UniProtKB/TrEMBL annotation:
InterPro entries: Glyas_Bleomycin-R_OHBP_Dase (IPR029068), Glyas_Fos-R_dOase_dom (IPR004360), VOC_core (IPR037523). This is VOC family protein. Gene3D superfamilies: 2,3-Dihydroxybiphenyl 1,2-Dioxygenase, domain 1 (3.10.180.10). PANTHER family: PTHR39434, VOC DOMAIN-CONTAINING PROTEIN. Residues 9-135 form the VOC domain.
Amino acid sequence: MAATHSTLQPFHLAFPVTDIAVARKFYGEVIGCEEGRSAPHWVDFNFYGHQLVAHLAPDEVGCKANSSVDGHAVPAKHFGVILNMDQWNELADRLKAAGTTFVIEPYIRFKGQVGEQATMFFMDPCGNALEFKAFANMDQIFAK
């Protein structure tokens, strides 16, 4: 059964990192995630209400392929969260202030079309691609 945005359950995502201390600093201080449980080789984060777990696995990190979306080369392997517009703008400002290099600068994708959304792509310091997006109208998330 498909869930809608009003009935979402927290998801769990485990992903590889090259350095736990670097991941802890980026996800905790730059993204603003509260830290949960941890051990020497992994750390949990509260990722906007979802459980994100960074595992030390340097050989598994990276993105090897892109896909063309709205004229941009989108990292095929990425994750992120859909925020409200205020949260999205705040995060974009925080990332810029932290000196983040964007794969795709913050912009409005599909402007004036079905599914119009704010989006930005960047890499964490371990080489994982992230996308954060926002919709002015949340009913557009799955619009065709």
